[in-house]
Design brief:
Radius of gyration: 20 Å
Number of helices: 16
CATH superfamily of the largest domain: NAD(P)-binding Rossmann-like Domain
Bound molecules: nicotinamide-adenine-dinucleotide, magnesium ion
CATH class of the largest domain: Alpha Beta
CATH topology of the largest domain: Rossmann fold
Strand order of the largest sheet: 4-3-2-1-5-6-7
């Protein structure tokens, strides 16, 4: 029996995680569920999975959460705030933590789980993009197991040799990691009309159903950029060893290319319950509730190279990856602010890349290594991006 905490239970990944867990009551028990604003959903989840704790991230919602818990007869203990998030991520009773908070807000509780040596199922890619070396070093020092949930990284993980040693691609006979991406909803849209892209259009992914921030990131391909950085950290590769391949059908979730000419790919229907079930059961396998891939109806699989005029954010992220930690932290922060402004209809779709690139241009290159320095760069870039957005309005 594994005891699990789900950070970000009310989101898309959180709901899928609870769905898989509910299929295996003999294998998994929920210690805590956490959420931010969707309190009704959070309380019904806590009730359905008999969680011991519910954590409401925002302390301003605590009173309302307690009222709801008693009205809905939720037996769990209700906690709130950042310390409570850290507590449920690191409590001794917990075996595994699903890190599924979106954005930089997930960094500290995810790090708390890492430092407590948990099995960490990492969906929250922004946490790793922000803190790369620090995160991976902490995992090594504290014996945490990091299992990638992002479908591409989960696919790569599945395609690596069993004796793969972190950072030694050459020794494992690997020539490159092929990171696939669908290209999002605007792969064929005329470039001249990009400035007119509406929030509704950007929030409609052709293959995957996800939270709004990652859906916009998929449309700009910043998501693939963040995943590029994530892959370098997760597998200890250089930026030259990762290649982005456009694969519009999202049937192959990524591939590993070997020096002998072999390419190993992981395939399946685009449903996050597959990588989630893999993370929960590793090294075993459990039913995820996902339909088997039917090769009689899959049709053709196609591949292409990414067009950098169409996806300027992708190149920004690859360049930031080469520049180092300060650049990736700043880019992630600027992008979160820019995407939020786009979702609020304050700026145009094309302004997202503009804000990201200007933020990076206007800040002096520096070296960061401590958590405090990383958090300072996050704040600095958020302030810079917000000022740029005010200038655009
Ligand atoms: P979502 O927006 O659906 O859910 C986000 C969750 O984070 C919610 O539970 C919300 O309450 C919580 N949250 C938001 N702001 C918070 C804050 N300030 N403090 C504490 N909690 C907060 O997002 P999602 O699509 O489930 O994505 C979650 C993470 O997983 C993201 O990092 C995303 O990149 C990654 N991911 C998602 C998918 C997917 O299919 N949805 C796939 C791969 C990776
Ligand atoms: Mg992904």
């Amino acid at each position: 029996m594994q005891t699990i905490t789900i950070l970000g239970a009310t989101g898309s990944i959180g709901c899928s995680t609870l769905d898989v867990i509910a299929r295996h009551p003999d294998k998994y028990r929920v210690f805590a569920v956490t959420g931010n604003t969707q309190l009704e959903r959070l309380m019904s989840q806590a009730k359905a999975c008999s969680a011991r704790y519910v954590v409401v991230a925002d302390e301003n919602h605590y009173v309302r959460a307690q009222e709801l818990a008693s009205a809905m007869n939720v037996p769990a203990q209700i906690l709130c705030g950042a310390q409570a998030l850290d507590h449920v991520a690191s409590a001794p009773e917990v075996d595994a933590v699903m890190a599924a908070i979106v954005g930089a807000a997930g960094l500290l509780p995810t790090l708390a789980a890492v430092k407590a040596g948990k099995r960490v199922m990492l969906a929250n890619k922004e946490a790793l993009v922000m803190s790369g070396a620090l995160f991976m070093d902490a995992a090594r020092q504290c014996n945490a197991t990091i299992l990638p949930i992002d479908s591409e990284h989960n696919a790569i993980f599945q395609c690596l040799p069993a004796d793969f040693k972190y950072g030694s691609l050459e020794q494992s006979g690997i020539s490159s990691i092929l990171l696939t991406g669908s290209g999002g909803p605007f792969r064929e849209r005329p470039l001249e009309s990009f400035a007119d892209i509406s929030v509704e259009e950007a929030c409609c992914h052709p293959n995957w159903s996800m939270g709004r921030k990652i859906t916009v990131d998929s449309a700009t391909m910043m998501n693939k950029g963040l995943e590029f950085i994530e892959a370098c950290w997760l597998f200890g590769t250089s930026a030259d060893q990762v290649k982005v391949v456009i694969h519009p059908q999202s049937t192959i979730h990524s591939m590993v290319q070997y020096v002998d000419g072999s390419v190993i790919a992981q395939m399946g229907n685009p449903d996050m319950r597959t990588p989630i079930a893999y993370g929960l059961a590793y090294p075993e396998r459990v039913d995820a509730g996902v339909e088997a891939l039917d090769f009689m109806t899959v049709g053709s699989l196609t591949f292409d190279q990414p067009c950098h005029d169409r996806y300027p954010n992708l190149q920004l992220a690859i360049d930031a990856c080469r520049d180092g930690q300060a650049a990736t932290t700043r880019l992630n922060a600027a992008n979160e602010v820019a995407v939020a402004a786009f979702l609020n209809k304050e700026i145009a779709f094309t302004d997202i890349a503009r804000v990201n690139s200007e933020t990076l241009n206007q800040l002096e290159p520096i070296t960061v290594s401590t958590l405090q320095q990383i958090l300072e760069q996050d704040t600095l870039a958020r302030d810079k991006a917000s000022a740029l957005i005010r200038g655009l309005r």
